[in-house]
Design brief:
The chain is an alpha+beta fold and 311 residues long. Helices cover 27% and strands 25% of the residues. The radius of gyration is 19 Å and the shape is globular.
Length: 311
């Protein structure tokens, strides 16, 4: 692996698709000795067979491993240096819980039925290794809006900038081509949100609702979501790549926050800025209207890393 760059798993760098399925697994008490080879082989094999049914659907399956998952399944491989469990955060009545998850699979495609089929086969394939504890089906809503009716993901990096923001570089050869991922599921408090005027909603998000234009700095409050979630270092924005998707139905709905970065510190910093009030008492006011119900961290190894386990 030293002579060529490790290839990322394709789903890490590709744009969010119309449909996404997010699967969270916890390991059984005593996984078999070669369990990770089973996991990697299942992902690669299922992805290949279901892609062939409709190549235009762009189906990808992206595998992530948590700190606990790595320490139990990959004992012969050095753990990525910055991989750590998600640390719960709270301030005032706002909480970001830390929840279970050893393996994570993001299935993306243009067809919900193929995602479902891939998820069903993966659940079966991993039955001796891990239990599926959450299966969330996300989808593109209108023109990339979330369920609070604002456009999401506008500030994502693209092309070379995306790879630079997301992938671990050659300075860490054992984990190069990999990425760090934080996943949170947020449930909307719809009645509270709908009771706000459009102008107040726009101040909360930091963008206009109708045509998705960022508010001018002299209008945008310090507690706007896009101000509080922006990470800066020496005056420069440090980018992450959000593959968020809305989920749910008329009874309960919200957003899957799916954030990739080359260092988890970017993600942790953004979340801390959002939830913890600063010296002026300002926090991300969007958190008054959405509630995080899960929180997990994963490392997304490179496809090159996975391929060594696949026969």
């Amino acid at each position: 692996m030293t002579h060529h760059a490790a290839h990322a798993q394709p789903g890490v760098l590709s744009d969010p698709t119309t449909f996404a399925e997010y699967l969270t697994f916890t390991l059984v008490d005593t996984p078999p000795a070669n369990a990770f080879a089973d996991v990697a082989g299942s992902i690669v094999g299922i992805e290949k067979s279901i892609r062939q049914k409709d190549p235009t659907s762009n189906l990808t399956m992206t595998l992530g491993v948590s700190h606990n998952g790595w320490s139990r399944l990959l004992t012969d491989h050095e753990m990525p240096g910055e991989l750590a469990p998600f640390q719960a955060m709270s301030d005032g009545d706002r909480t970001f819980p830390s929840t279970a998850g050893d393996l994570f699979c993001m299935i993306k495609s243009e067809r919900m039925d193929l995602n479902y089929q891939a998820a069903k086969y993966l659940k079966q394939a991993l039955s001796g290794v891990a239990e599926l504890i959450e299966d969330i089906q996300g989808f593109k809503y209108l023109d990339n809006r979330d369920m609070i009716d604002f456009v999401d993901g506008t500030e994502n990096p693209i092309d070379d900038e995306r790879a630079a923001a997301v992938l671990v570089g050659h300075e860490q050869p054992l984990v190069s081509g990999g990425s760090y991922l934080t996943v949170q599921r947020y449930v909307d408090r719809e009645e509270l949100w709908d009771a706000q005027t459009t102008e107040d909603q726009e101040k909360t998000v930091g963008r206009t609702k109708m045509d998705n234009v960022e508010l001018d700095d002299d209008v945008k409050p310090a507690w706007a979501h896009n101000a509080k979630s922006k990470v800066e270092e020496n005056g420069e924005e440090v980018m992450m790549f959000r593959q968020n998707r809305p989920f749910g139905n008329a009874m309960e709905h919200g957003t899957m926050f799916v954030g990739f970065a080359r260092s988890p510190e970017v993600l942790t910093t953004a979340l801390r800025q959002m939830i913890i009030a600063d010296d002026n008492g300002d926090y991300d006011r969007l958190l008054d209207f959405v509630e995080a119900v899960t929180g997990t961290n994963y490392f997304i190894p490179s496809r090159t890393f996975l391929d060594q386990f696949v026969g």
